[in-house]
Specification:
The protein has 121 residues and is an all-alpha fold. The protein has one domain. 63% of the residues lie in helices and 0% in strands. It is built from 7 helices and no strands. The longest helix is centred in the middle third of the chain and has 18 residues.
């Protein structure tokens, strides 16, 4: 569980980086490429980071921490935040990747429901 900060579409990137310091290289590269934080683009970067890390370490606590924060986002009252997570993280997941099923088991209820909207067999 993250600190008491209310999650919003405006602060989600900073909340992720503050609570998961392993994201600092992703954040820094994003800033180098874009000179500002573009939340939708960052969440796409985050999707690739999570999938790559999970493919190397299926028991990664970093992946679990990220997914826990994203689950909290999906329970937010901020509809822009929910949309951001849905469109820029969940929809971008490569469901054909090796070990996707084990990654899926780490999703909370709300992320899982959102994933079902984008499922392909």
């Amino acid at each position: 569980m993250i600190n008491k900060t209310e999650l919003t579409s405006e602060n989600i990137v900073s909340v992720l980086v503050e609570n998961v310091p392993e994201l600092n290289p992703v954040y820094n590269e994003h800033l180098e490429d874009h000179t500002e934080i573009l939340a939708h683009v960052f969440l796409g970067d985050l999707t690739r980071f999570v999938q790559e890390l999970h493919s190397r370490d299926q028991s990664s606590r970093v992946v679990e921490a990220i997914l826990e924060i994203l689950e909290q986002c999906m329970n937010s009252k901020d509809l822009d935040l929910e949309n951001l997570i849905s469109v820029s993280f969940v929809e971008n997941l490569n469901q054909d990747m090796r070990n996707f099923k084990t990654l899926r088991t780490k999703f909370g209820n709300m992320l899982g429901k959102e994933l079902n909207k984008y499922r392909h067999e």
